[in-house]
Amino acid sequence: MLIEVPPIHDTGKGAGRVLTMSSIAFTLMFAVWLMFGILGVPIQKELALTDEQLSWISALAVLNGSMWRLPAGILTDRIGGRKITIVVLFLTAIPAFLVSQANSYITVLALAFLVGFAGNLFSVGTAWNSAWFGKERQGLALGIFGAGNVGASVTKFIGPPLIAATAGATYAFGIQGGWRLIPVIYAVLLIIVGILTLIIVPKDDRAPGTSKPISEMLQPLRHIRVWRFSLYYVTVFGAYVALSAWLPKYYVDNFDVSLTTAGLLTATYIFPASLLRPLGGWMSDRWGARRVMYATFGIMLVASGILTMPDGHITIYHPDGSESDLMFYEISLPFFVLLVFILGCAMGFGKAAVYKHIPDYFPDNVGSVGGLVGMLGGLGGFILPPLFAYTKTWSGFPSSTFFCIFVLVAISFAWMHLTVYRLMHKATPKLAREIEEPVTV
Asked: Which helix (H) or strand (E) holds 313?
């Protein structure tokens, strides 16, 4: 049974169960979606892949986890999130298990693409929770749900020690140990969470777009504001996804640490970028999403700017032909980890702030608008890993990874500030207030 929800609605009686199970499902799905950040290292060794080839494994998973977010969000508004969440959980279990059987680069690419469908659960959960929670609690609810991004750290924690402990072993039904055991475990967990969702979540779901035509649901996408929000989300989420997949290799290659250590260090970036999302939602509810976005972009600009600078020194050539090396500069491992941690904190706040805008400005089209924003943000995560690999090859500097992020932040920050300046200084006082206080629809 579906309940059509009016644009302005109260928090439903079963909202807590929806938030709990959607958050658990999303956390697991995110772990599956980005598992190649860790699995890619042993896969690269086993299949003798180049860095560019490896980057496309994560990129294709991110691509398929992004390209369906718009239709998934619309479908959630029309038929409810319960059915879609359960179906996606069960379907993703199939390619996840098959990853354990892959023996060639092409097979891994194909299965990574199929497994990547898990990422589309984000727009499903966003629209689903927006339908169940009233406006006064949406920012916090969406922040809690979005904290499921922390799933990206699950493989970073359990992967390396489990891979090392089970390498070379064979278990029941011919299941092999090492990196191949991880996707099997995930496949089993996906089925278990699917069954629990079926049992726990209220059967009478909410679907605010049940009787609304598709053309009407897509109408808000004509607004430039929606596309601006999408660019913000590329910056705070697309870059987050890309770095989550890329950092383990970055640590191994540039700081000569083990895969286990690299996974743990990457988790210090993933945790704040995920767990601070509820706080970012609360801050957006209390002080306004625009203020949070200003702080987010400012912090990201400084942190990524410092990380962009490669190790080096200044060489002075004297008239007598001698040379002097001055101002030696090096980003040590602790300083690097601290800067990446700060970058993750800013992303955590920013992800919540971007999605706080959507139910405020488009309360009866959260599925379509949230789906588009999520889709384009995820596509940023598809584009960036290969961009990291190719800019490193072209420039010779591993830190070019952060130069790509710096440029992206600078463009987003400039567009946001230009929009705010134009509205607050050239428009009417009433419109100036509306940039801070969401338009009432």
From this structure: strand 312-317
